[in-house]
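Give me structure tokens for this 98-residue protein.
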Amino acid sequence: MTPAVGAVVVLTELDSAPRLLVTAVDNDETVTGVLLADLAEETRQRLASTGDRHRREELVLAVTQTTELARFCVPVAECRQLDGLDFDDADRQERETQ
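Here you go.
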């Protein structure tokens, strides 16, 4: 399944299984995202509290305009969307692994 912009995915090909916030999807083949751990705490909280898809996409757009963040492009096949976990759970697990 191809993740949507604003989803959190796990990179399955890496041992540490880092989490990415999806900022773009190219032809259902490549996901571009930023590491969840690189986002400011306030940004993660705002994303976690936003249930409206349109508002979440606006926040993702703001994140993509930040030039300081490294962007990663990976094949969709190397990503697993965090099904069954809401954003708060993904954020909490990310902090626990740091």
